[in-house]
Amino acid sequence: MPAQFFAGLEELFGSMRPGTTISAALAWLFLAGAASAQTLTIGVVAPLSGPSAILGKQIEAGAGLAAQANGIEFKTEDDACTSDGGAAAARDFAAAKVSIVVGFLCTEAIEAAMPILKDANIPVITVGVRTESLTDRRAKTGWPVYRLGPRGDDERNAVAATLTRLWQDDLFAIIDDGTIYGREMAETFRAAAEQAALKPVFVDTFRPQLDNQIGMIGRLKKAGATHVFAGGDGDDISIMGRDAAQLQAGIVFAGGENLRTPPGDVPYATGTLMIAPPEWAEAADAKVLQSFSAQKIVPDGYALPAYAAVEIAKAALALSSGKPLTEALTGHDYPTAIGPIRFDAKGDLSRSIYRVFRFDGTRFVPLDSN
């Protein structure tokens, strides 16, 4: 053993109280070393300046509150949602030897940061980057990144799987507004329906941002559609719902998570379906919400996912037992403030967080609560 080890023992034994055994001293040394090895310092990175700063502040607040609640040290960096900012933050984290990094909202920032963090053996839990290639290229890049949120294709896949199941006995139609977003949503649903041996009674593209959609509603009614998925924004879907009611078409409309944005002057029709992640503030642990309230922090947007990311980081460190954190982060269930979280081998969520909500005339509520 190195001479420093024995020198340390000599200093320790010299300061021991009478009656203290050598075995007790050695046990103390072991525990102190284990505690030191398990020290967790988290890097928190978010756009704290620029147009996305309001979202970055949510990450900072949620992660900071979780760190405080769990006695964890943390270091915060502003990536400004830029590649330069992401790389600079990564270098600072590597120099500080943080155990893990949570945050990131922007593709440019995280893609610039990951090569640096990979070389430093620092895994990342991103709470907001949806770019599919971030995890799809894992075998090629080796980037230790985990996604605490949906992928870019999760929404359309959830719409397709959900409506194929819900509408298997209904006369349904599929329409879109001609945008890339709308077309991809509609085509994914159409393909899933075809694979399930289901055929829509009507498929078409509508002109968005019109004052009325009477013509489209007339064609849908003539085709006999009782349920319609519209790949478009909330304003168009709300107008369709109004016009369908005026023509007594008896149509139930469905859309994606953009229905979370309140429409303009025309409210959503009662019964409108939305396939989207839950509002975390409505699904989170009550005690955690109380801690947010006590600190006068609004649990909006990314605040609760950031809180959960810190919880996962702490639990993964305890589970790793000195092994690489990536081994602990993959394939384990972690209880968090927003429910159980499990990452698959690529670093994506192993279970979809999308749910079906129904507009009750005032707000969207989970369909299974109706």
Q: Could you characterize what this model shows?
A:
The structure is a single chain. The protein is of the alpha/beta class. The chain folds into two domains: 41-150 and 281-329, Response regulator (Rossmann fold); 154-276, Response regulator (Rossmann fold, 3-Layer(aba) Sandwich), CATH 3.40.50. Helix content is 46%, strand content 14%. The chain has 15 helices and twelve strands. It has helices at residues 3-15, 22-37, 53-70, 83-96, 107-119, 133-136, 138-141, 154-166, 180-195, 214-223, 234-246, 280-283, 286-294, 303-320, 325-329; strands spanning 41-46, 73-78, 100-103, 124-126, 145-147, 172-176, 202-205, 227-231, 252-255, 273-276, 355-359, 364-366. The strands form two sheets. Strands 7-6-8-9-10-11-12 form a seven-stranded mixed sheet, sandwiched between helices. Strands 2-1-3-4-5 form a five-stranded parallel sheet, with helices on both faces. Helix 3 crosses helix 14 and helix 8 packs across helix 9 (180-195).
| Poorly predicted runs | 1-37
SSE string, helices as H and strands as E: HHEHEHEHEHHEHEHEHEHEEHHHHEE
Strand order of the largest sheet: 7-6-8-9-10-11-12
CATH fold call of the largest domain: Rossmann fold
The end-to-end distance, rounded to whole angstroms, is 69 Å
Structural class designation = alpha/beta
Helical content class:
40-55%
Q: What is the average per-residue confidence, as pLDDT, rounded to a whole number?
A: 90
